[in-house]
């Protein structure tokens, strides 16, 4: 009886192959043999099925299984003659080098599935839930028609945070329920903790996002970042949960439980936690997407174990399905010896995806990780730090022998196959990787009742107003009041009698500033609590919302990344040349607006979008009240300003006091430690320097700071 209960007949759908009956039960005949193979038998364990399937696969099929590549939808293909299946699949061929991601020639969808045998695809398009579901269904229909009928698994970067689009980071905002950025989720949850609660907001976020992904058929998430932000100039700070290792460990555990469930199953979204063993220990903010940022630095004894590894330990304990190592190389010269559980760590100067000791010894043996290793994009071509001298086939061998099972954002079947044929990777290792990858697919139900999803159901789940309401609540909760001189806030009806409010948004790009200003004024109007004016000279109160931006994701700045909010500031490049940097356009106008309102005895409220730990010395003195948002909706900020919602949010990271506390000397050494979070940097600061910003009211903008009223 026990057995039957465990093996309830799944509801199977086929589009190409047949269903066969055995023992009065139904199974898919995925290889068209007319008989039941162990891999088709849903009564067996995922591992047993994976092992059987791997024994039936040829080398080309195993090679294709170990690569994941970006795949665009047919809807995104402008030339409809280059599509198939009524425009659903993109069949265009992109020649090598046509764009930065075409490291090798990209073939059409059908050719890639049928002839190159790829089964893992990264989804970056942003169409409706029903359209995405139909696309994934059609991809799986093509897969079903192949020799062994192996389905495909669609992965994506996160889709539930509000942010400006950045390829490879925020590919898709605004379709699924839209929450604040991850720093905003941290600000809100840490605020709840400060008020005696816990991080259940993170659990709620993960559960709701899970339901939306599951309905759409995207079953793999490249998320979330377990990295602890310790170097303030790191451009990817905004994708983290801040700088508090204990909080991040808790958040990552909740995220995994919410998306995957207690254990991985046929309604899980399998997660890839990134970027092991933590990308925060940058060399003065430079990012390993480019050569200048290829090193991870650990100048502080114990920093790797104390600050960077705890969230990854939590990810393993909560059963994350896969782990993504970072591009960067641990530097011997710029680090002191680090230990893990009492053992010295030997630093091999190769990127972590090639790093046998970190993957096998620390992650698998010490931490007990059971899942598979998914490299970051481009490790065999552009971002192959530490193994630049090797051929592409040798890089594949180095990564896979170090323990990497799935190589990301490539379709380079030739070089992986060459490495195997040359005897550089054993067949045993290739089989091991395939078993790991296929075990996940079997566990997710992709071979059985979860191959296809209902587009109508996807629409219904994603349009559920309760999800959007929960997300909006998190926006309000994320708003962090940093400064509130003379009780400027809240702007209650009695303080507003006869007063006019001027609203303007500032941005690095003037055209965005204009469109954002229009949106902010509209949302403020909708609130119906403020009398607005578009004339500064009439205003009694100004609400100025700042969106500073600094640096770029794929290219290094000529000098160090600028954290001051500034315009046309003269800086010195690393090579000694002079250049100008702007992080916010219209600084002069900003000051004029503030002065104009202050001269008439009015109040100025400034909101800064914290996607990096900005140095606020150029804007804080202009503000009677200063607020931090984290890609937080304007309307939510206005609600907090109006007193409709009591401020809850606190800073998820420390804001630096000045350029002096992050100064870098001629040898590239930073005055504050790159590998230590802001709240602990003072332990290592020179006499007389304090790391955190202090405002004119004496507030210190340290991790956990946030006022309320």
Automatic annotation (TrEMBL):
The keyword Signal applies. It is an enzyme of class 3 (hydrolase). This is beta-glucosidase. GO terms for molecular function: hydrolase activity. Residues 128-439 form the Glycoside hydrolase family 3 N-terminal domain. Transmembrane segments: none annotated. It catalyses: Hydrolysis of terminal, non-reducing beta-D-glucosyl residues with release of beta-D-glucose. It comes from the Bacteria. Keywords: Glycosidase, Hydrolase, Signal. Belongs to the glycosyl hydrolase 3 family. InterPro entries: Cellulose_Degrad_GH3, GH, Glyco_hydro_3_C_sf, Glyco_hydro_3_N, Glyco_hydro_3_N_sf. The keyword Signal applies. Its EC number is 3.2.1.21.
């Amino acid at each position: 009886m026990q057995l039957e209960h465990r093996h309830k007949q799944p509801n199977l759908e086929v589009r190409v192959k047949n269903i066969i009956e055995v023992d009065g039960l139904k199974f898919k005949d995925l290889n068209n043999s007319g008989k039941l193979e162990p891999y088709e038998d849903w009564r067996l364990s995922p591992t047993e099925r994976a092992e059987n399937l791997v024994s039936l696969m040829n080398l080309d099929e195993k090679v294709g299984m170990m690569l994941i590549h970006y795949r665009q939808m047919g809807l995104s293909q402008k030339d409809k003659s280059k599509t198939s299946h009524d425009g659903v699949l993109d069949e265009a061929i992109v020649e090598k080098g046509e764009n930065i991601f075409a490291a090798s020639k990209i073939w059409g969808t059908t050719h890639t599935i049928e002839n190159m045998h790829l089964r893992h695809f990264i989804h970056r398009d942003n169409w409706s839930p029903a359209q995405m579901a139909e696309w994934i269904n059609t991809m799986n229909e093509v897969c079903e028609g192949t020799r062994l009928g192996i389905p495909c698994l669609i992965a994506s970067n996160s889709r539930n945070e509000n942010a400006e689009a950045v390829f490879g980071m925020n590919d898709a905002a605004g379709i699924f329920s839209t929450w604040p950025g991850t720093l905003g989720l941290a600000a809100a949850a840490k605020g709840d903790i400060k008020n005696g609660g816990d991080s259940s907001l993170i659990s709620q976020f993960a559960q709701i996002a899970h339901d939306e992904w599951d309905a759409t058929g995207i079953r793999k998430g490249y998320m979330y970042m377990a990295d602890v932000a310790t170097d303030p100039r790191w451009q990817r700070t905004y994708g983290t949960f801040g700088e508090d290792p204990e909080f991040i460990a808790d958040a990552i555990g909740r995220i995994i439980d919410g998306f995957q469930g207690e254990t991985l199953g046929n309604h899980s979204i399998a997660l890839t936690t990134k970027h092991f063993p933590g990308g925060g220990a940058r060399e003065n903010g430079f990012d390993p997407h480019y050569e200048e940022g290829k090193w991870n630095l650990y100048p502080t004894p114990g920093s790797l174990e104390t600050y960077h590894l705890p969230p990854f330990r939590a990810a393993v304990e909560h059963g994350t399905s896969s782990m993504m190592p970072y591009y960067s190389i641990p530097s011997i010269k710029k680090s002191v010896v680090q230990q893990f559980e009492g053992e010295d760590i030997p630093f091999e100067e190769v990127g972590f995806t090639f790093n046998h000791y970190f993957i096998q010894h620390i992650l698998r043996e010490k931490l007990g990780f059971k899942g598979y290793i998914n490299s970051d994009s481009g490790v065999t071509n552009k971002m192959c730090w530490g193994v630049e001298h090797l051929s592409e086939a040798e890089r594949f061998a180095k990564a896979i022998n170090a323990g990497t099972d799935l190589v990301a954002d490539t379709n380079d079947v030739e070089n992986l196959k060459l490495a195997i044929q040359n005897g550089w990777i054993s067949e045993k290792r290739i089989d091991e990787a395939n078993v790991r990858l296929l075990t996940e697919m079997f566990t997710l139900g992709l071979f059985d009742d979860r191959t296809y999803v209902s587009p109508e159901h996807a629409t219904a789940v994603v349009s559920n107003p309760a999800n959007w309401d929960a997300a909006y609540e998190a926006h309000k909760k994320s708003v962090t009041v940093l400064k509130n001189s003379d009780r400027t806030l809240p702007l209650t009806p009695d303080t507003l009698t006869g007063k006019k409010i001027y609203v303007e948004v500032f941005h690095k790009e003037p055209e965005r500033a204009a469109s954002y200003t229009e949106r902010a004024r509209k949302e403020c109007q909708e609130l119906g609590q403020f009398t607005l004016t578009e004339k500064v000279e009439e205003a009694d109160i100004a609400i100025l919302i700042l969106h500073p931006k600094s640096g770029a994701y794929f290219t290094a700045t000529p000098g160090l990344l600028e954290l001051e909010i500034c315009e046309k500031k003269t800086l010195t490049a690393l090579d000694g040349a002079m250049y100008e940097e702007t992080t916010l356009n219209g600084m002069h106008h900003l000051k004029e607006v503030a002065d104009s309102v202050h001269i008439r005895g009015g109040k100025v409220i400034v909101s800064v979008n914290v996607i990096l730990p900005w140095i606020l010395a150029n804007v804080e003195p202009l503000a009677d009240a200063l607020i931090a948002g984290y890609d937080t909706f304007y309307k939510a900020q206005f609600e907090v300003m109006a007193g409709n919602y009591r401020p809850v949010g606190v800073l998820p990271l420390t804001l630096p006091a000045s350029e002096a506390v992050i100064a870098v000397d001629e040898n590239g050494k930073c005055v504050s430690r790159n590998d230590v979070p802001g709240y602990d940097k003072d332990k290592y600061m020179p006499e007389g320097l304090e790391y955190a910003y202090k405002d004119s009211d004496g507030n210190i903008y340290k991790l956990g700071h946030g006022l309320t009223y």
